[in-house]
Amino acid sequence: MANILIVCTANICRSPVAAALLRDRLARRGLTNWQVLSAGTWAMVARGASRNSIEVARRAGLDITQHRSMMVDERLLNGADLVLVMEIGHAEALRAEFPHQAHKVHLLAEMVGQTYSIADPYGGPLEEYERMVDGLTEVIEDGLERIIVLAKENANGRG
Q: Would you call 159 helix, strand, or coil by DSSP?
């Protein structure tokens, strides 16, 4: 079993969708005992996922209606074997604030050998959310092997 934490800014658009996608892809691989959580670097108040994120997740066959945002903190990072972030700034901030957890923090795009941020569609039209879910789906599906390897390596180091 491994624990993966996905981080974005407010934890209402990108990370809830990415977490649901990753849970689904792991379950399809038979890794149903893995935990995937999401959090935000600026999730000050618990909120549900954005309306458009709920809609694009629904279209992808995923239900994120019960999601409640939460702030990334020491406890979540301690429990995570792998931390996947949406933006370069998220990685920099987490590595600076939690240097003893820095080895776990990776840009999601790194899972496919790239270095770029996943754009935040917050406040934009549904089309931007559709582009977000398409991009997340591609990175998670193409990077799934790397995600599994990194999470297992860190989980084994914990054990």
A: coil
Distance between CA 118 and CA 138 in Å, rounded?
Answer: 12
Catalytic residue selected from 13, 14, 23, 25: 14
**Is residue 108 a contact partner of residue 132, using CB atoms and an 8 Å limit?**
no
The reported pLDDT for the residue numbered 158 is 62
Q: Are 5 and 39 contacting, i.e. CB atoms less than 8 angstroms apart? A: yes
Identify the helix (H) or strand (E) that includes residue 88.
Answer: helix 88-97
120 included as an active-site residue: yes
- Per-block average pLDDT, block size 10, for the chain (159 residues)? 97 98 98 97 94 98 98 97 98 97 97 98 97 98 98 83
| Residue 79 neighbours by CB under 8 Å, 6+ apart | 3, 5
Q: Catalytic residue at 14?
A: yes
CA distance 116 to 109: 6
Please, which residues bridge with residue 40 across strands? Answer: 8, 71
- The CA distance from 44 to 108, in Å, is 23
Instruction: Name 109's Cβ contacts closer than 8 Å, sequence gap at least 6.
Output: 115, 116, 117, 118, 139
Decide if 24 is catalytic.
no
Token pair 């800014």 is found at 9
Question: Which one of 95, 120, 131, 146 is the catalytic residue?
Answer: 120
